[in-house]
Amino acid sequence: MIRLDGVSKRYPDGTVAVHELSLDVAKGELVVLVGPSGCGKTTTMKMVNRLVEPTGGRIFVDGADVTHTDPVKLRRGIGYVIQNVGLFPHRSIVDNVAVVPELSGWSKARRRERAHELLELVGLPPDTYARRYPHELSGGQRQRVGVARALAVDPPVLLMDEPFSAVDPVVRGQLQDEFLRLQEDVRKTILFVTHDIEEAVRLGDRIAVFAQGGRLEQFDTPASILGAPATPFVADFVGFDRGLKRLSVTPVTEADLDHPPVVRADDTLRSAAATMGTSRWAVVLDSKGGLAGWISQDTATGDGVVSDHARRMEAWVELGDSLKVAFAEMLQWNAGWIAVLGDDDRYLGVLTPSTLHAALRRSVEADNRSIEPSQVDLVTVSDA
Ligand SMILES: Nc1ncnc2c1ncn2[C@@H]1O[C@H](COP(=O)(O)OP(=O)(O)OP(=O)(O)O)[C@@H](O)[C@H]1O
């Protein structure tokens, strides 16, 4: 959908901002450009909507060479969101959102209807917000208006230049979550600039890491960037804690699970004790195979059934959730293990701190060697 083919930009003073950059963004994909200050991210983005003209190479949007497209027409088909939004202070929120529809000659009623629909979509109920002015909104709310405005004429492509940088970290996290939900719905093709690797990992389908002079160091999925940095520059940029960051992009798979003894809520305590053997505890399932809780071996004695002594288990995740979510659940519930559930809440197994660690190591090792995680044979210090 967006293709950069050997694109360069040398400013008149001789600064090379971008050097022979080739990059493609598939339809519906979100590609994040990340790198230190001054490495050419913004210049790259501005060349796509012709706010800056390249000095070499070609750029295509939906197959058309942008240098052959009228810039005004081009920009109407590309939503643009910038850091401090740039809302018009003397226009109401509804009129700010409707700027491009107005330029495109939509009727007043149609503009208003579209603006209300978009405000709803970005979580700003129009009854409350439509008639306000920008100074009557919080920073996070203004950013949402910026996103709504960029979506106004439903452009297939969005360019977003540090859109969430001006707000505090908590609001930023909320905006990122909302934005990901929105993107699930609207599936735009997005180029997103940030200098924050955490934001890149959280949002990007793929990440392009730039070094000074607009040189592309690596263009890959977040998991691969974190697991197998292509150059020392990338390794340094993503940080020594990249293993930890990778938790958020590594999903829990069935191969990661441990399988402690399992008993049923209506089993007798005697049969449960026999099932447990030497294990100190067992998972308790209900009659449908769902998670009911757990029981410790020292309470599985005497007459009665498992449900008399079973305890609820609050810590669980779904297959496919990230290892980070699993780890956070473990910490939140102060649990030594958490259950993993599949479709229809079916119990599949458990994750413990050591299986979680192994899962992470396996996925990093798999990326380093370009094989599947299940093919990795882990050797630990104590085995060696
Ligand atoms: N109009 C200009 N004239 C000359 N040099 C420029 C111009 N605009 C940008 N540059 C230079 O081009 C390089 C890349 O700038 P650019 O704004 O693209 O970087 P960036 O990666 O977006 O940086 P930041 O994260 O700080 O916003 C920098 O060295 C910058 O000083």
Automatic annotation (TrEMBL):
PROSITE patterns: ABC_TRANSPORTER_1, ABC_TRANSPORTER_2. GO terms for molecular function: ABC-type quaternary ammonium compound transporting activity; ATP binding; ATP hydrolysis activity. Keywords: ATP-binding, Nucleotide-binding, Repeat, Transport. Its EC number is 7.6.2.9. It comes from the Bacteria. The keyword Transport applies. GO terms for biological process: glycine betaine transport. Pfam families: ABC_tran, CBS. GO terms for cellular component: membrane. InterPro entries: AAA+_ATPase, ABC_transporter-like_ATP-bd, ABC_transporter-like_CS, CBS_dom, CBS_dom_sf, Gly-betaine_transp_ATP-bd, P-loop_NTPase. Gene3D superfamilies: P-loop containing nucleotide triphosphate hydrolases (3.40.50.300). Residues 2-238 form the ABC transporter domain. Belongs to the ABC transporter superfamily. This is ABC-type quaternary amine transporter. It comes from Phytoactinopolyspora halotolerans.
